[in-house]
Structure to design on (124 residues):
């Protein structure tokens, strides 16, 4: 089992920045890929970014966040980060980290482990 806990959400003005954290515990050695997704009210959960847990290999970003969001990691803390810059009102959503997909990295249905989510609200 793997447990994921997100933190770092909040209210920010358009153009501002936030850094989300995803702390993992449990059998983290089984994690190959982790991803970030978001879900706005009335919308489906959508892909934001993903990378290998180790950081070796590819990193993927949704077109809507490319150039503004960046993934990073602290292996000693088993924590992964999503740095979000130049935030826009349309980035408002609950953000989730997820791990161990059994399919495509961009498909939320493929991920086995999920955090509880953290709210990001961007005011105009």
């Amino acid at each position: 089992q793997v447990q994921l806990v997100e933190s770092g959400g909040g209210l920010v003005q358009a153009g501002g920045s936030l850094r989300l954290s995803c702390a993992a515990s449990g059998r983290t050695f089984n994690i190959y890929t982790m991803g970030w997704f978001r879900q706005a009210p009335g919308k489906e959960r959508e892909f934001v970014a993903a990378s290998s847990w180790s950081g070796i290999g590819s990193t993927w970003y949704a077109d809507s966040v490319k150039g503004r969001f960046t993934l990073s990691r602290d292996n000693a803390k088993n924590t992964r980060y999503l740095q979000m810059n130049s935030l826009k009102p349309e980035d408002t959503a609950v953000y989730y980290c997820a791990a161990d997909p059994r399919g495509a990295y961009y498909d939320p249905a493929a991920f086995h482990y999920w955090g509880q989510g953290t709210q990001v609200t961007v005011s105009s």
